[in-house]
Every structure is written in structure tokens, then in C-alpha cells.
Known about the structure:
3 helical TM bundles of succinate and fumarate reductases
Amino acid sequence: MSHPQVKRVSTVFEKWVIALSGLGLVAFVIVHLLGNLTLFQSGGSAFNAYAAKLESFGPLLTIAEVGLLAVTLVHVAATLITKKKNMSARPVGYRQWRSKGGDTPSNLSSRNMVISGSVLLIFLIVHIFQFRFGPGVSQGYVTEHNQDQIRDLYRLVVETFKNPVMMVLYTTVMFVLGLHLKHAIWSALQSLGLTRSGTSASLRLVGLVVGILLAAGFLVLPAWIYFVAAI
């Protein structure tokens, strides 16, 4: 039988892994959104130049992508392990769900983190496959930048989101992203020991605001492309 102290250390370590990997993924989402904002420039020259710059990093880009995948898998694995332990320790659910950090009843986002996280993981895989390994220069998606021929990724993005089905699916996933981040950011800060008496409500607000801003940023892009952008 495991010593209680060992169990506590293991639990704290798992929470730190989930928190740090989760915050790392939030940082990636922020950077990704900032890069995608170049889509607003008409004609797509800025976005294509941004994409070409990333491609120019070659092996470094591949290492970054592998690192992102590793962080994602670690986050997912640690979350599932913790979830399984919690379910084993509490086989019968509470009558009234309550959050870990106080007396406030838990909400939709906090009770469905595994579900929303699974949706986001599936979306990430599809999204990367669609745009990272989708049609390129050899398939006619080509444009010029500084007298060089580069991939016209802007065209692919616009064609994708001009499809109403893709636009609706993407919009739905972005709502899921907002709900996931709303609780995830606060939970990560709590796991790192940053929540204290009187600060929990403020940190919940931070999670809510960041979740709304990131989801809104990603929601505006496909809407603008669908209704306004042209190839």
C-alpha cells in the first residue's frame, strides 16, 4: 500500500504538470491568434509572408511542432490519470457539484473539462493536418513574395471558411475553447498555489476574460472570412 505522503506528493506533481503544460498551451494559443490576425489584411500577403517565415525555420519549426505535440500529450495523459484517480476515490458522485476552490457550485465548463479537452484535441489534429499538410505550391496554391514563389495558404484558409459547414463547425469548437479556458486558467493558477483568500474570485475573472478574448478572437476570423474576405 502506498504511503499517504507519497500519494500527496504524486498528486501535487500531477497537478503541477497539468497546470504548467496547460499554461504552455494557452501561450501557444495566444501566439497562434496573433499570427492569424494578419488574415485581416486584404489579399493575404501579410498572412502568406508570416506562414512563409515560419516555414523558413525548417528543422526548428519541426522541433517546435514536436514539442507542442509532446506538451499536449503530457497534458492529456496527466489529466486522464488524475481524473481516473479522482473517480476511484469518489465512486459515488456528490449530490451537488462544487468547485475545488470554494463554496460556489461548479459550472458547465468545470464539470466537462475532459469532454471539452477531447473535442479540442481532435480539432487540433484535424486543423494541423488540414493546413500544415494540405495543398501547397505543387497543387497550384502559389503566390509571390519578395520575388519568390511561396505557398498561398491564405487562399486555402479562405476557401475552407467560405464553406458554411466548416465555418459552423469551427465556430462551435471556438465556443468549446472559451469554456475550456475559462476554468482551465483558474484551475492552473490554483494548482500552482497562486490562489489565496480574497484572490480566488479575481483569478476566476482572469480565466473568464482570457477565455472570452481568445475565443472571440478566433470567432471573428472565420466570420470575417465568410462574409467579407475574397481570394
